[in-house]
Sequence to fold (782 residues):
Amino acid sequence: MQLTEKHKEYWQRNLKLTGVMFALWFVFTFVTGWFSRELNEISFIGPLGFWFAAQGSLAIYVAIIVYYARTMNRLDDEYGVQEVEE
Amino acid sequence: MATSSQSQFYANLKKYYTFYTGGFITFVIIVGILEQLGVPTKVLGYIFLFATILLYAGIGFMSKTAEVAEYYVAGRRVPALFNGMATGADWMSAASFIGMAGTLYHMGFDGLAFVMGWTGGYCLVALFLAPYLRKFGQFTIPDFLGARYGGNIPRFVGIIVAITCSFTYVIAQIYGVGIITSRFTGLEFGIGVFVGLAGILVCSFLGGMKAVTWTQVAQYIILIVAYMIPVVWLSVKHTGIPIPQISAYTSALPKVTAMEKEFNDKATPKGAKEDSVRQIFRDKAAAADAQLKALETGGANYLAEEKAKLTAKVAELKGAAAPNVKAVEAAEKAVKDFPADPAAAKKAWTAAQKAATAKTAAVKAHAQPFPGKDEAAQSKSRKNFLALILCLMVGTAALPHILMRYYTTPSVKEARISVGWSLFFIFLLYFTAPALAILVKYEVYSNVIGSQFASLPGWVANWAAVDKTLMSVTDFNGDGIVQLAELTIGGDLIVLATPEIAGLPYVISGLVAAGGLAAALSTADGLLLTIANALSHDLYYKMIDPNAPTVRRIAVSKGLLLVVAFIAAYVTSLKPGNILFLVGAAFSLAASGFFPALVAGVFWKRANKWGAIIGMSSGLFICGYYMYLTYPFFGVNAPLWWDITPISSGIFGIPAGFIGVIVGSLITAPPSKEVQELVDHVRYPNLVGDIDTSGR
Fold:
């Protein structure tokens, strides 16, 4: 089995997308977490730091996963590596 | 052909579970009517317990199977949506359902580490593992390690890790089952454990993963309905808004914060009263301190003197003209309870000193992140908050009973979507728990504090009568009014008492108990199945007897399921104690043992057998070693490394695991061409001329 250039490009795009999503995950976990005290000075449905940890980050996690899944499912078709329906 | 039957299957499932949900709501309404007709609450508790267990048994019976793919991976035809619900139930344990809101009530902001840690891990599952494991498509996690790294050693280490973390975690679940059944039916804890065990086994025994999947979907529906109804009601009662996730922050939290300030300010009437109670505890702590000091210098002599004083007091009271019976009894009890030797005295008085000191502290500000008396303490608290989040997240992405669920979807695409559904269904409960904690705190601060001891709110009096560890109020300063420092609330109370606080009938309390039971049973099911499969599939079939016929493989698996279940129930009935310890240990162990080798297996072609072996064992070893050093349970109590608390041991195990994989791989030869092709195989959902690992 030989991987074509197209296959390699698919994997590169997957890695890039994974990296961006991973960075978002990191920011909305550890950066918002680290600055919770400062964020709490801002008020948004309660103090913002608290809101992120209780709701905001969670909602972003769901969004990250859904966006990743939809983009990858589209890429599968675009690069012809989608599964064959049995 | 398969496509149309799969969509037909999906349509049918939606129909069945819609009917089921309607049926369940009707059932709750009927029980509610029974309650109005005057059926005693204990009977209602039994009805809920046995009706739901019977229901799970029915689903388990209908899903009975003797086919390998159905038994291990539910026939790989679970649609994304339903796999999401099943994962949600699999994931949310008794600790999430009953304990989470209580943890948040007590810890305030710092408790949110659990909320974030137990959700954000799904990002790692989605990005690094689920689609690749689905493409690989065999039966267990050790299967992947065995195929990717070649040979039996990586598989065997995988079996060890899977069993260690799943078994630790399943004890915590069965414990939860025992507590719920004993509380709501009055059965003894040990018997409750075995009744619950029957409930666990009826689902998994006959139909393996297939039965567990469809039961878990049913259990998710029960648990989410049971969680939401009381919280929404409480929100309406307090704020008039039916969305607790908003009303708690906009309406209740500012008032809670204002009251916290009032309680801590000695200039206000309430603050002054609080301080008078705290003064009593400060005196108690000082007295215990003095006793400890005297014990240190006086030793056994001091102890004998003190005891003689107490004995003399009894004699004096008895000798009075008209002996006060109560006073004599109290004095006699003091003599009886007096510590026998200096070691016992030291232990008892240290505990008394600690308990009293804890009560002298000012009220914690609920929304304040990382509280601490100075900059150093605050930064320590922040560091531990983030470390715990990391361990819980990576642990989530490494617990085999969760990863296994993504083998059951029909395709890679569905596996990706399914992680999204999983987290969405988990999110529904997890973003409600912090709101519930605030709403209950508001209720306690505004309606319980300041009420007369003679006329306590109904729910306070009820729970104080039922269980002192969950709710106790004592009028320490004798003013007849409840102060915050006079009130002790157990964490589990928050969820259990919410229906009563909201003024709902008992039927809703029964529903909450059924929800808690569903949460504990579903998680226990998934875990037991993981352990039994690791033993029967990986150890027996793959390593001992690869020629075993299908019938025998499934028979061995079922037999082991029974054995493991009874061992787990037996260990639980010994009450090994601290649940949080067990849960934290399971996550850190899974994170350190599995995550590095699994991720490297997909993303780094150069990773090889020795890398995996060294990575998994060093991760497990470092994590376990730090636990051994620091958990009070083991009695070593060595100094902490960089102030990291033992629950976050994984923070050292995870890097050790990654370093082990990298170093171990680089100092040995690269993996064979076949293994590299396997990596390409899992990376692409479909390749021309692809190898087949589906194990069909």
